Amino acid sequence: MKIRDVFRETPTVLRDVYENQITKRGKVLSPTVLHVNVNLRCNTKCAMCNIWELKSPHMLTLEQFDTIFSDKAYARVEYVMLAGGEPTLRDDLPEIVELMHRHMPRLRKVQIASNVIHTASVRAQYPRIAGYCHEHGIRLSLGVSLDGIGDTHDKIRGAKGAFKKVMESVEFMKELQRATPFTMSLDPTVFSMNIDELEQLKALAERLDMPIVFQIAAISDDYYGNVDTASTLALNDADRFKMVKFLKRRVAEASLFDALAYYYAEVIDHEEGAPSRALPCPYADQGLLLNPDGSVQYCHNSRPIGNALLTSSTELYYSADNQAYLGTVRKESCSSCRMSCMFWVGLRKEPMTFLSFVMKRMLGVHRLNWRRRVEQ
């Protein structure tokens, strides 16, 4: 984040600070972040995720989305992640974005996570989404799941020719970006199969003039269904050392107000033995997750708390029993959770955590020592 962006965001950050430090002491905060799994089908067979095995037939119609989002529980939502499965396997993503905006007047940012290998869908839908978001002042962020170079990516994704198709979509998206402003990034998932290609992925991002966000593979049986493959995903001691050294370089090179540096610092601390999570998560007290069958969760660590097709989301979200259950999730799961869901929203809603990190970097305390250690 650049300094001018910091000043531009200051008013809403101050509002968020008030709500998170004062308002939530007296009442339950309304949802401001929303994760929507638009399907649970996929066109790859990823080594780190078993969603593709579900072959789920569930998929909410536009009419069902419209009914669900008309509930007042969604009126204060500001940040939305559209995911799956593979979201581009639907052909109505622009309509989903538009109807969400109709019901979410405070919508500030839409993110879409995709493997972008369904090139025809990318070409048909992304221009409409980008145009709508630009016209209505909504920030659009398109994530490109790219886990390796060439055959490595194809092997990880279990799809021959996947890397070539990603490159074709990226070329199209960059052309689109020149005509209609939005942000996009390469989003590799780091685990045992690509640990030796992190530098190559970084170099590719630099050649493409794109940001890159290295995300650590997460284990979640309820969402990814990958608990049985956890040992395959895990890094051995030598690979863990490689990753930590690589991420320390990224922190040392990052600009002062780069929120991504904080996330990498969190990963490093965890790998070096930190017992609990320091990264704030907005889903801990103001998030919802909607599944393709209409079921609702507080987050990926939460069990379903009901079905929005049968019971209003307001009733489900604010239910005393469900809020008590959310407290249990925070107590039992949050400290050990390593998922990075909208971490940058958590940092802006609890900025003292981030500002403390910035001050330490300015003063050369703790994490800036990494620069000297890495360069030795």
What are the main properties of this structure?
376 residues, alpha/beta, TIM Barrel, eight-stranded mixed beta sheet, 10% strand, disordered C terminus
Describe the structure.
Helix 4 packs parallel to helix 6 (162-179). The longest helix is centred in the N-terminal third of the chain and has 24 residues, at 3-26. Mean pLDDT is 90; it is low at 370-376. Strands 5-4-3-2-1-8-9-10 form an 8-stranded mixed sheet. A two-stranded parallel ribbon has the order 6-7. Strand 3 (109-114), helix 4 (119-135) and strand 4 (139-144) form a beta-alpha-beta unit. The chain is 48% helix and 10% strand. By secondary structure, the chain is α/β, with parallel strands linked by helices. It has one domain (31-234, 275-341): TIM Barrel (Alpha-Beta Barrel), CATH 3.20.20. The radius of gyration is 20 Å and the shape is globular.
- The N- and C-terminal alpha carbons lie at a distance of 29 Å
Encode the helix/strand succession as letters. HEHEHEHEHHEEHEHHHHEEEHHHHH
Beta content: 5-15%
Q: Can you name the CATH architecture?
A: Alpha-Beta Barrel
Given the structure, what is the number of helices? Answer: 16
Question: Which stretches are poorly predicted, pLDDT < 50 over at least 5 residues?
Answer: 370-376
The computed structural class is alpha/beta
Task: Provide the CATH top-level class.
Answer: Alpha Beta
CATH superfamily: Aldolase class I
**Number of DSSP strands?**
10
Describe the main β-sheet briefly.
8 strands, mixed
Query: What is the overall pLDDT average?
Result: 90
Query: Using only CA atoms, what is the Rg?
Result: 20 Å
Helix content estimate: 40-55%
CATH topology: TIM Barrel
Could you give the order of strands across the largest sheet? 5-4-3-2-1-8-9-10
